[in-house]
Amino acid sequence: MKERLRRDLTELMLIPGLSGHEERVAARIREGLAEAGIGSRVDRLGNVIATLPGDPAAPSVMIFTHMDQLGFFVRKVESDGLIRVERMGGVSERAMAAQPVLLCVGPGRDVPGIIMNKAHHATTPEEKYKVLTAPEIRIDTGHGSKAAVEAAGITIGTPVVYRPQVLPLAGDRIAGTSVDDRAGCAVLLEVARVLAGRKGGPTVHLVFSVQEEFNLRGAVVAAQVLKPDIALQIDLMLATDTPDMADRGEMVMGGGPGISLYSFHGRGTLNGVVPHPGLVRLFEAAAAGEGLPLQRSAQVGVLTDLSYVQLVGEGVASLDLGFPMRHSHSAVECCDLGDLVGLTQLILAGVARIDPDFRLERDG
After folding, report:
1. Is 126 a catalytic residue?
2. Structural domains of the chain, ranges and CATH numbers in brackets
3. Which of 116-120, 171-175, 208-212 shows the lowest mean pLDDT across its residues?
């Protein structure tokens, strides 16, 4: 399992897929599902959906994770060929300078570039500690003129992502671009392979969603059609085992999968999730039954698309499941493969415990 997760995560991290432009990622995921004998479909927004029928008397379950990544859109091409952009999603602007990027023109035609950083020798004392915002930066592709840039296929609206890269670290740790949430996609692919051969259990809808980084859009559309009774969302959880994060919690990278007991964005988007108590108990029991460690998270400043999925129809019993990750929303994020293995096992064990007796009401 670990080596399949490593392979899938590595391949997915190297595929660009800015929000609204996830098609290449979706194609790779559909190939993986097809290899496991699982049919899938793509809805109008671009979500990849696969349904594994089960006991109609049991609550139906939607397990989902997002395919897209944050980045930029080209706003303007200057006469000297330098490119101006607008940020897309929660880009960490203090982590932008001097980063290599990829301007996504099309497979085989993508153009590399670099976010410019003023020469240190010419930087004034006032500038040394100033962080540029996304609208202030320029990207250099080396073309030297507007005409040359446009001839390469770059126009207003061209998607831009950090240059895809994978950096294996010591042990089972992997760093690179879009760990958020290609790690979740790798886990869901592995869950799909195992569930495809199961006997019994609830109907499970697998959703690889789009536009999560762009205001949490894709999963809601899928939920409106699938009308699940239960929603399980897979995403990162903030690792707090470094000095800069130590006061935020007890989430240790390499310490196993986690569940969120409270999330609230609190910055403009006043939404979050207080999970279904029955699902919390069920997954705590599943972890104990399998001998899996289970970490707990409660965070302000965190938001997932489960915040909106939980409100679909009559309401959906919901729980966020995840893996610890460092350096979120930077050009080089980091996770531990052991946590992804544990998360896969936890999801499978939890789903197996969902039966017709599970109470969807929160008074259960």
Report:
1. no
2. 2-69+177-352 (3.40.630.10), 71-161 (2.40.30.40)
3. 116-120
